[in-house]
Design goal:
The protein has 272 residues and is an alpha/beta fold. Helices cover 37% and strands 26% of the residues.
């Protein structure tokens, strides 16, 4: 009965009149339910607006300051957004040890299908930070320009493939030719399948299939993912632009506002 009531409340929120709203919901993902938040700007009855999917990075979650800053700024510009926790992260179901980039792409695809079918959504764009940037680029490549308006990649972690091939993840070393069942990363058990999948990921080959507008934002002081990986993205995108933020680290610490403003300005120009 409680689930039915929750579904009715969500339905009413989606169809109710002209107020900006934040809606908490769950969407079926690759490994269970994904916890998600939609921020929707004020709309007239029957009105529509662009939607931006905002994807967090490795071990991250939907409530990180950079992501919420982007979502709030988009709402102020009349653009809706959806943030969600990938499988094994945050409030979503699934075990972190079962997470791979490929099943995160499937999570994101299911979220895309959900928002694409929402009657108030007029076009979908995707923005992702770190590993979420890789997922963004590969999903957009798979879906194509007909389905995705534009993409924003914030410190996109294409280095993850090189790290997996080197057998060195965040300073933890292992035999790349025969990875262990798990590697302890920041208190999380990273599974062998993640490493094997990462070693074979066609990141740039998939990303370049997206021919729409693309924006890379990267800090020059990023020691986790050097900004040269964004330079590589720029080379594969025929319609891409690169913004370097001097002195910013991987999480844009102390530079969240500048990174968010750059992302939102790009999305204002291309998501509508």
């Amino acid at each position: 009965m409680r689930k039915i009531f929750a579904a009715i409340v969500v339905a009413l929120l989606f169809t109710a009149g002209a107020y900006a709203e934040t809606i908490s919901l769950h969407i079926d993902g690759h490994h269970g339910k994904l916890a998600a938040l939609i921020q929707r700007p004020e709309l007239k009855d029957g009105g529509k607006c662009p939607m931006v999917m905002i994807l967090h990075g490795f071990t991250g979650n939907k409530n990180e300051h950079l992501l919420t800053t982007i979502a709030d700024a988009l709402e102020a510009e009349g653009i809706a957004s959806i943030r969600f926790d990938f499988n094994g992260h945050g409030e979503s179901e699934g075990a972190f040890s079962d997470m791979t980039v490929l099943n995160e792409i499937e999570d994101a695809r299911k979220v895309f299908d959900f928002v694409k079918a929402s009657e108030y959504v007029d076009g979908v764009s995707i923005a992702g930070h770190s590993q979420g940037g890789v997922v963004t680029s590969m999903l957009a490549g798979e879906l194509g320009r007909d389905n995705v308006k534009c993409v924003v990649l914030l410190a996109p972690a294409a280095v993850l493939r090189d790290d997996a091939l080197r057998g060195n993840l965040f300073g933890k070393t292992y035999d790349a030719g025969n990875p262990p069942d798990s590697v302890d990363i920041f208190g999380h058990k990273l599974g062998r399948e993640y490493i094997l999948t990462a070693q074979a990921l066609p990141i740039y080959e998939t990303a370049e299939k997206f021919t729409g507008p693309a924006c890379m934002i990267h800090g020059t002081a990023d020691r986790i993912v050097p900004y040269t990986y964004s330079l590589s993205y720029k080379r594969v995108y025929e319609n891409g632009e690169l913004h370097l933020i001097d002195g910013a680290d991987h999480g844009f610490t102390g530079h969240e506002k500048e990174a968010a403003e750059t992302a939102v300005n790009f999305l204002k120009s291309h998501a509508k």
